[in-house]
Amino acid sequence: MSASGGTRAIVAALGANLAIAAAKFVAFLFSGSSSMLAESVHSLADSGNQGLLLLGGKKAQREATPQHPFGYGRERYIYAFLVSIVLFSVGGMFAIYEGFEKIKHPHEIEHWYWPVGVLVFAIIAEGFSFRTAIKESNPLRGNESWKDFVRHAKAPELPVVLLEDLGALVGLVLALGGVGLALATGDGVWDGIGTLCIGILLILIALVLAVETKSLLLGEAAGPEAVVQIEKAIVDGDTVTGIIHMRTLHLGPEELLVAAKIAVQHDDTAAEVATAINAAESRIRAAVPIARVIYLEPDIYSEKDATKGPDREATPGGPAQPAAH
């Protein structure tokens, strides 16, 4: 769901940004507005960003190889991180440079109807793109706030498009304000101030994207709900009596690794333990379908060993985690 929804949102944003970039550049040529130039570069950078997200999604679908045995799911995180760099360098830094230049050397805006008309068109087009991103995000967001959704989403495409579209809409309002004040006062400095504000906005959004995608690149665990479901699925109360310790890791937005040391009865046979592990793996996949790589290690839980230290990995056989209810 997240992959298809993310692709639809990216394609909608790409189409809108290409049309807007062309319109803004034409408006810049006729009016000489630096806000229009900064906004055209912004839209062009956004179009490149959507291209990067589509490329990352395509590359992530490659089959696992001996050199990359867990597949290429994290390609989506890498390309999302590249988006934040492009937005920062191409969009934000260029707008700040252009804004300072226009403040130092202001000139009157010519043919005012070009930038105003294009900005109104761009706001409508970006609004359509933003609406599509919101619509595709809602099924995944559930009851989460938008802030939590952006912070906790494992699929990077929708948060990236949402923040880009939001930044684009706010940037357009800033550009319209700068152009409007420049026309009302006859002072082109306001156009430069609007451009400068756009650059600051883009850099702030780029930093947020960089922080969030960096966390995904480093490797994030499954969400709390998924962890509870996995714990319930592992313990059957018969052969598997508890979880000594467990780790989860997202290999990609739709692929989860689960590794756990499980407690079994001391008198169980090897065949009984193997059967219990196979059954636990089936229950995990039924409860959390994206748990595709599962490693379960049986051990005998020992209360005596569990008292030797708080480090779960260093303490053989314990301490066991209580089964989730």
TrEMBL record:
GO terms for molecular function: monoatomic cation transmembrane transporter activity. GO terms for cellular component: membrane. InterPro entries: Cation_efflux, Cation_efflux_CTD_sf, Cation_efflux_TM, Cation_efflux_TMD_sf, SLC30A9. Pfam families: Cation_efflux (PF01545). Keywords: Membrane, Transmembrane, Transmembrane helix, Transport. The keyword Membrane applies. It is found in: Membrane. It comes from the Bacteria. It is a multi-pass membrane protein. SUPFAM superfamilies: Cation efflux protein cytoplasmic domain-like, Cation efflux protein transmembrane domain-like. Residues 11-218 form the Cation efflux protein transmembrane domain. Residues 304-314 have a biased composition (Basic and acidic residues). GO terms for biological process: zinc ion transport. NCBIfam families: CDF. PANTHER family: HUEL-CATION TRANSPORTER (PTHR13414), PROTON-COUPLED ZINC ANTIPORTER SLC30A9, MITOCHONDRIAL (PTHR13414:SF9). This is Cation diffusion facilitator family transporter. It comes from Streptomyces sp. SID12501.
